[in-house]
Design a protein that fits this description.
This protein is mostly helical and about 130 residues long. The protein has helices at about 10-30, 35-55, 60-75, 85-105, 110-130.
């Protein structure tokens, strides 16, 4: 049930904000680490921002839009990832494309959303071709 149906938007926002603060604290602890784990954590952080916006989509306010912009900034820095082994880079790029699709869909930027949806599907098909051939 959506929070708006029970008129609990303030409670939902408070719970989400507490959760998001924990992600931000965790991200600070990983600031000086250069590993795929750090990137995966940051992608999870971006996903939490996207999930907030999705949960509040019927009541998306400036705070929710700001979180989507934060998610976009996190994801874009890894969209063309070349930091790791090719397989890890592809996994990061695929996830980034899916997240950008979700972000732009939530913001109503349909043209950008479609672009990243197609790219994510392309990455997925490429991965399936490679794993089927092994």
């Amino acid at each position: 049930m959506r929070y708006g149906e029970k008129n609990n938007l303030d409670i939902a926002r408070k719970c989400w904000d507490d959760c998001l603060k924990l992600f931000e604290m965790g991200a600070q602890l990983l600031n000086h680490v250069a590993s795929v784990r750090k990137v995966e954590f940051q992608m999870e952080q971006a996903q939490s921002y996207i999930s907030y916006a999705d949960t509040m989509k019927d009541h998306l306010d400036d705070h929710g839009k700001a979180l989507l912009e934060k998610a976009e900034a996190i994801v874009l820095q890894y969209y063309n990832c070349t930091l790791f082994k090719p397989e890890e880079n592809r996994r990061v790029k695929t996830r980034a494309a899916w997240q950008l699709w979700k972000i732009y869909t939530a913001l109503g930027k349909n043209e950008e959303a479609e672009k990243y949806n197609k790219e994510a599907e392309g990455f997925r098909r490429e991965y399936l071709r490679e794993t089927d051939g092994k």
